[in-house]
Recover the amino acids of this structure.
């Protein structure tokens, strides 16, 4: 199997970003955030990660390509927050096409990400996964990712 990451060009990126932000917002709401909190989260992330019609410097969005055909998308960037180390990278998005899921391509995308980060001189990858995404959480744990924090909430009726 031939697998690689192919960086998206500006036109493809501009085509992909609006749907990605909409999907991201939906995942936040599904995870239990209010509509208002989801909107604020998306706005905050767009302000820090986007630049015009594209992404801010240090961000790379790739098609995950297997045997010449795209099977998913991977977004890797350099976090800019306090305490972030020189060799740290962050996975902002990894998605495998619905028809391609269950074939090991999520694992493959993460392995390609790790190889790319090593080649770029990185020494650490971080990511966020919503608590309700048990499939992704299991995948990341099986690849050696560990939980650094757990955020919890309870909705109160009445």
């Amino acid at each position: 199997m031939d697998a690689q990451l192919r960086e998206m060009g500006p036109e493809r990126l501009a085509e992909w970003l609006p749907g990605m932000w909409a999907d991201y917002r939906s995942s936040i709401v599904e995870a239990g955030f209010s509509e208002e909190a989801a909107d604020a989260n998306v706005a905050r992330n767009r302000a820090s990660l986007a630049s015009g019609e594209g992404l801010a410097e240090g961000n790379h969005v790739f098609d995950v390509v297997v045997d010449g055909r795209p099977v998913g998308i991977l977004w890797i960037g350099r976090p800019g927050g306090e305490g972030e180390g020189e060799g740290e990278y962050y996975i902002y998005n990894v998605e495998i096409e619905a028809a391609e899921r269950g074939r090991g391509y999520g694992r493959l995308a993460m392995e390609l990400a790790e190889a790319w980060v090593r080649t770029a001189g990185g020494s650490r990858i971080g990511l966020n996964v919503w608590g309700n995404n048990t499939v992704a959480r299991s995948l990341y744990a099986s690849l050696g990712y560990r939980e650094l924090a757990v955020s919890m909430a309870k909705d109160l009726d009445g």
Observations:
- The chain has one domain: 3-142.
